[in-house]
Amino acid sequence: MKQTRRKFIKSGIVLSSGIALSNSTAASILSTKAKDQKSSFPIAISTWSHGVPATKAAYDYLSNGKNILDAIETGIHTAESNPEIMSVGYGGFPDAEGNVTLDASIMDKNGNAGSVAYLKNIKHPISVARLVMEKTDHVMLVGEGAKQFALSHGFKEENLLSDAAKADWLRWKHEQEIDSSENHDTIGLLAIDKDGNISGGVSTSGAAYKLPGRVGDSPIIGAALYVDNEIGAACATGLGELVMESVSSFLVVEKMREGYSPTEACEIAIQRIYKRIENKENKNQVGLIAINKNGEYGGFSLSKGFDFGIANSSENRLLKTDHL
Ligand code: SD4
């Protein structure tokens, strides 16, 4: 997405950490300062309203002392299996030719990463991404190679285009119109286990009716997902091109390293995206969520309407984020 670069004017506002901020950034950080929440461990947070059942499933695993990667996979499976979630797994939006192609990534507490992109006919790409991380010397497998890898590890090929998604696709082929407000359901799930170790995962069918071959941000480490067990983790949903060009999740974690809270770090990363958008009237949607080593968590979005689920020992609910 080619955007005109705007000059970022540094003002004299300097935080105690010595970091200079633009006036607008500093003002909005102050405006959201109180919005972080804090939780005991274990905890899971996850994008959109399907993040509520996903975090519940993950939390149940974590509270039973199970492996955090099992918890992340299990949480994300709830969305990948649900045909009503139109941007993930089975029932996800196909590309322009009617093929459902899936992207996913996972990172563990040691900073190991695995991802798959442009994966067809395999329902649980998050599990394939985990196997890439655990069983190969690589980080990312794509397309036919990723599918053959999955089949060789016992995954079954299945049709992922649900009747409802097919009907929507046929309507789109005729009308060429899409409601962009509904074109983002990607699941990103971040968790901290009872020992305070952090991991995360992301899974999506990507942008609806994308050009065949298009890969989004979800399998790109640093873009839609980043975990640094010393600092925290972040993940992204929304228009992947914007997220990729700003390497948003890595940026959020680096901002938390500088001392910003999760909400503040997400807001800074959203501001970074916003600056690059030429058409401010039609800025689309990106949602970021983050969690830090202390169990503080939050999110921020480019446009109205982003929310995320949280599960810990005292609650399992949906939280709205602030937006630009
Ligand atoms: C992508 N970030 O492929 C994904 C889209 C998304 O819910 O969030 N869909 O660009």
Task: Outline the secondary-structure elements.
Layout: E1 13-14, E2 20-21, H1 23-32, E3 37-38, E4 43-47, H2 51-63, H3 68-80, E5 101-107, E6 113-120, H4 125-135, E7 140-142, H5 143-152, H6 163-175, E8 187-192, E9 198-204, E10 225-228, E11 232-238, H7 240-246, H8 248-257, H9 262-276, E12 286-292, E13 296-301, E14 307-311, E15 316-320, E16 322-323
Parallel strand pairs: 6-7, 13-16
Antiparallel strand pairs: 1-2, 3-13, 4-8, 4-14, 5-6, 5-9, 8-9, 10-11, 11-12, 12-13, 14-15
Bound molecules: N-hydroxy-L-asparagine
- Spatial order of the strands in the main sheet? 7-6-5-9-8-4-14-15
Beta-strand level of the residues, as a percent range?
A: 15-25%
- Amino-to-carboxy terminus distance: 20 Å
CATH architecture: 4-Layer Sandwich
Derived structural class: alpha+beta
- Could you please say which CATH topology applies here? Glutamine Phosphoribosylpyrophosphate, subunit 1, domain 1
Tally of structural domains: 1
Could you name the CATH homologous superfamily? (Glycosyl)asparaginase
Mean pLDDT value: 88
CATH class placement: Alpha Beta
Number of strands: 16
Number of helical elements: 9
Low-confidence parts, pLDDT < 50 over ≥5 residues?
A: 1-24
Question: Could you characterize what this model shows?
Answer:
The chain is α+β, with helices and mostly antiparallel strands. The chain is built from nine helices and 16 strands. It has helices at 23-32, 51-63, 68-80, 125-135, 143-152, 163-175, 240-246, 248-257, 262-276; strands at residues 13-14, 20-21, 37-38, 43-47, 101-107, 113-120, 140-142, 187-192, 198-204, 225-228, 232-238, 286-292, 296-301, 307-311, 316-320, 322-323. The strands form three sheets. The protein has an eight-stranded mixed β-sheet with strand order 7-6-5-9-8-4-14-15. Strands 3, 10, 11, 12, 13 and 16 form a six-stranded mixed β-sheet that branches. The chain is globular, with a radius of gyration of 19 Å. The structure holds N-hydroxy-L-asparagine. Residues 87, 184-186, 204, 206-207, 216-218, 237-240 line the site of N-hydroxy-L-asparagine.
